[in-house]
Amino acid sequence: MITTSRGEKLLQAINAVLLLLAGLACLFPFFYVLSVSFTPAAEVVRKGVVLIPEQFTLYAYKQVMQGYGLGNAYQVTLFRTVVGTALNLFFTVLMAYSLSKKHLPGRSAMLLFVIFTMLFNGGIIPTYLLTRYLGLLDTVWALIIPGLISAFNLIIVKGFFEQLPPEIEESAKVDGAGDFRVLWRIVLPLSLPVIATIGLFYAVFHWNSYFDGIMYIRDQQLYPLQVVLRNILLNFQTQSVDAVNDPSLPASFLSVQMAAVMLSTVPILLVYPFIQKHFAKGVLLGSVKG
């Protein structure tokens, strides 16, 4: 039976308190944004920092949902996140599985090419010109195809595949299974931790990206969620200054900003608990080998 000394118990207590304080420090900004989003503008201006509103209001959420095309932006972002993540995983898994085979002809050259893209890129202007020449401007595919495979994620998945026992695949091929069947029926079920982890990486990237939406999209009906959120923040910036000078203004400038932040943040946060158990395991197992 393992006994714990008094010093170890004290150290564990100190670690628990420090972790609790760190967790509260991380949760405070989120809680503040949530509180302000339900607080009338006059109360925000009067108090400055609002943790528990005296009066709850949904005015800010109504303003965001009705006046700024957030519903349409949600559809674009959901399509980009779901379809983009699926395509990212499909092509990343195919390429990583191929590069994990040491007998693949030209494997070293392809790996060198992949690593080279992690260090150098063509820049914004060549990327924009290529996207325009491909006819992707003002289409949702301009937000998906240019970033179809992440070199970093590819290396992680490749490293995970290399750790799988080769005897499993060899026995399946002896029974007559081809490469695609081995990948689909054997390798992928064993690779759920790394697939879930990389899927989360891709999904968060698509959900939070806004720069490519500004650069490639001119049609406001195709603006992703983060671009609309940016426009909301810019539109209410001048109103924020006016409201500080005149607290009688009825416009919920700060509340609208915080409501937009909540509406764009909460959906992607809800995904994480479902794949949390795979997250750390997938990263660690996939990064042991390079």
Label this structure with key terms.
15 helices, mainly alpha, disordered C terminus, globular, 0% strand, 290 residues, single chain, 72% helix
Question: Any overview of this molecule?
Answer:
The chain has helices at about 5-35, 40-45, 60-65, 70-100, 105-120, 125-135, 150-165, 165-175, 180-190, 190-210, 210-215, 225-235, 235-245, 255-270, 270-285. It contains 15 helices and no strands. The longest helix has about 30 residues, at about 5-35. It is globular and about 75 Å long. Helices cover about 70% and strands about 0% of the residues. By secondary structure, it is mostly helical.
Name the structural class. mainly alpha
What is the straight-line distance between the termini? Answer: 40 Å
Listing every helix as H and every strand as E from the N terminus to the C terminus, the arrangement reads HHHHHHHHHHHHHHH
- Chain-averaged pLDDT: 81
Could you give a short account of the major beta sheet? none
Q: Give start-end ranges of low-pLDDT stretches.
A: 242-251, 286-290
**How big a fraction of the residues is strand?**
under 5%
SS elements, strand count: 0
Helix content: over 70%
Gross morphology: globular
- Work out the helix count: 15
Can you summarize this structure?
This protein has helices at residues 6-37, 41-47, 59-67, 70-99, 107-119, 124-133, 151-163, 166-174, 179-190, 192-208, 211-216, 225-235, 237-245, 253-269, 272-286.
